[in-house]
Design brief:
Length: 249
Amino acid sequence: MEQVRQPEQLDRHLESCQVISLGLMEYSAAWVIQERLVAARSVDEIPDTLLFVEHPHTYTLGSSTHEENILYSPQQLVERGIAIHTVNRGGDVTYHGPGQLVGYPILKLPVAGDGLHADVVAYVRLLEQTLILALTSYGVTAYAHPGYTGVWVDAKNNKDKNGKNSPEKIAAIGVKVNTSRVTMHGFALNVNTDLNYFKGIVPCGISDKPVTSLAKVIGHPLELTEVAERVSPAFGAIFGRMMVAGALP
């Protein structure tokens, strides 16, 4: 009978992915770092990388954003200290802010069946599964909602018209993949997020499904570093990577 390899044996056969925490950083500064790392990964100067970051109050507008989904006026944005950025990811408008764990994977994806491009949809599904796995460690049952992108949980006190628990979005996903099949942007997991800031937009263009946070679901706040320490191994498990500590080049 073939001997089962132990985890430490298996790790030697996995590609590495470095994990770098940027702490609290203004959105455009983190975007510059992303672009620099994407360029380096595109020519194989660095390994796959997972950035963790927390942003100040920010609305980002993806390539499918409809202006009517921004509900606050320019004056209200200024009064609330909310920056706004048009970005090159897919999707509609979303919110980033304190208490939210944002992950930016810089990965070189494999070639899809056409022998040229990456399978972006499959990549997004893997990001969803990563967060679902990480949330399981908190005893939270999360899932991918058919027809939508992101990660969802059932609301305990919010019923739909059929009397069933209504789905609430706990994590948003929006990505871009360049011609070298390298990814940027990624996911935003609401941990201790002030959900009131979602009132200034129609999140991801979805008006009939509310958002929630991990703190709201489990009943108490958490340290973002602790949550990142659970997301990182989940990412490694789903993507087949050995997660290692890294630093910006």
